[in-house]
């Protein structure tokens, strides 16, 4: 196509026969080139830049500010505009040079240089288009993340874990599509690349079975939703507050301030206790009273104490029932609810209950016995079971114990 245009240009300008006419046409080409290249072209590019910027601001509506700032730091707008204007000026001057050479009957030089120019132009266009696609994909991934955040803020059905996972999947999808498109622009054989990627995926899958298991478990947790960020959970022998849920791991902070990371495949293979899911939690406590004390009176005192504690919920109301006979005491079972269920509320309510019940029982002369054991013998067998230990020392200082009836 470029060769045909060049031949038409040669046929058009080759009809100029006289030297004066060629000089006049040459001067006209140079003037037009300078006027367009140095005056009109920069202004046109700046006007187009303002229009595109205004349109992008309206389209993005404040989204992707961080990625746009990152791109501007990598390639400043002024440098990009100067580069773009320079490329357009170079193309314009090249066209002017071809026209002048064709005018003076030197089109053979153009034919000789044309393949190199076409290759350079093709490579430049491919590089520019690849950069534009990758930059657009980078900005688009940021836009998608903010769009998912807005969607999650407007909906109660999307959890923070689902929001994060959905954002990552969409971002990876956009970048993969952009990468495949760029490879297609550069003429890379995608069929062979996909075959190689398939074999590589099989090898990596066999070498990283546990990692893939955690990845799949991350998707299972996203759809099953046994817990969310901020929940108080117990996973196996780990208990704490969930701080983050990623595709691979669940992050927790236990009550000793330790940072715990549990792989998602272990999470899905263990019992999960979510103490925050129902919005309230029942606490059990046991207290013992002496066998000489009145269980009904003790139960009433304990219930009054529970009713007075602020961290204990009034609905359902706490209750106290005698639950059994211990070795040294009658056992009272104290059951009450905390709302909302937090570790601080559990510890504070139990500590307050223990202190207040101990004080009220002491005021009411109700004992809280400790374990004790009484050993007695029947009177008729006491004399027959008495023994006397006789120690006889031998001459060498050693002795032996002789246990015989007295």
Structure, described:
By secondary structure, the chain is an alpha+beta fold. It has three domains: 2-156, no CATH class; 189-277, Roll (SH3 type barrels); 281-363, Alpha-Beta Plaits (2-Layer Sandwich), CATH 3.30.70. The chain has eleven helices and ten strands. The chain has helices at 2-13, 19-60, 65-74, 77-103, 107-154, 160-185, 190-207, 209-224, 264-268, 295-308, 343-363, and strands at residues 232-235, 238-245, 249-253, 259-263, 272-274, 281-289, 319-325, 330-338, 387-393, 399-405. Strands 4-3-2-1-5 form a five-stranded antiparallel sheet. It has a three-stranded antiparallel sheet with strand order 6-8-7. α1 (2-13) crosses α4 (77-103). The radius of gyration is 44 Å and the shape is rod-shaped.
Q: How widely separated are the two ends?
A: 131 Å
Per the principal axes of the C-alpha atoms, what is the gross shape? Answer: rod-shaped
Gyration radius over CA: 44 Å
Q: How many helix segments?
A: 11
Largest sheet, spatial ordering of strands:
4-3-2-1-5
Helix content: 55-70%
User: Which regions contain 5 or more consecutive residues with pLDDT less than 50?
Assistant: 387-406
Q: How would you classify the helix and strand content by structural class?
A: alpha+beta
Kindly give the count of domains: 3
- Count the E strands: 10
Strand content: 15-25%
């Amino acid at each position: 196509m470029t060769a045909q245009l060049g031949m038409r240009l040669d046929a058009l300008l080759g009809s100029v026969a006289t030297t004066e006419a060629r000089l006049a046409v040459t001067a006209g080409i140079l003037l037009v080139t300078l006027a367009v290249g140095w005056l009109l072209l920069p202004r046109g590019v700046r006007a187009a830049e303002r229009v595109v910027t205004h349109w992008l601001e309206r389209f993005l509506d404040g989204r992707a500010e961080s990625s746009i700032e990152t791109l501007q730091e990598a390639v400043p707008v002024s440098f990009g505009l100067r580069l773009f204007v320079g490329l357009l000026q170079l193309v314009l001057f090249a066209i002017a040079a071809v026209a002048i050479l064709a005018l003076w009957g030197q089109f053979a030089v153009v034919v000789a240089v044309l393949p190199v120019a076409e290759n350079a132009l093709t490579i430049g266009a491919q590089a520019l288009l690849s950069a534009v696609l990758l930059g657009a994909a980078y900005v688009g991934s940021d836009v998608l993340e903010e769009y998912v955040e807005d969607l999650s803020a407007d909906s109660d059905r999307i959890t923070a874990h689902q929001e994060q996972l959905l954002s990552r999947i969409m971002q990876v999808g956009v970048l993969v599509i952009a990468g495949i498109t760029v490879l297609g622009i550069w003429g890379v054989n995608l069929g062979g690349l996909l075959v190689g990627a398939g074999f590589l995926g099989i090898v990596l899958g066999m070498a990283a079975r546990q990692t893939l298991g955690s990845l799949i478990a991350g998707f299972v947790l996203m759809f099953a939703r046994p817990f969310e960020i901020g929940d108080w959970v117990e996973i196996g022998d780990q208990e704490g507050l969930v701080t983050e849920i990623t595709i691979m791991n669940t992050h927790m902070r236990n009550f000793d301030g330790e940072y715990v990371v549990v792989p998602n495949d272990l999470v899905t293979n263990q019992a999960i206790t979510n103490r925050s899911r129902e919005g309230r939690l029942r606490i059990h406590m046991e207290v013992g009273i002496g066998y000489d004390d009145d269980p009904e009176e003790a139960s009433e005192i304990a219930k009054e104490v529970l009713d007075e504690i602020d961290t204990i919920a009034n609905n359902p109301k706490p209750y106290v029932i005698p639950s059994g006979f211990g070795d040294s005491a009658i056992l009272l079972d104290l059951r009450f609810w905390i709302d909302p269920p937090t570790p601080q509320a559990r510890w504070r309510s139990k500590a307050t209950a223990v202190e207040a019940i101990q004080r009220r029982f002491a005021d009411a002369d109700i004992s809280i016995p400790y374990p004790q054991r009484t050993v007695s013998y029947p009177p008729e067998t006491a004399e027959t079971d008495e023994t006397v230990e006789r120690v006889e020392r031998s001459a060498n200082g050693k002795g032996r114990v002789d246990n015989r009836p007295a």
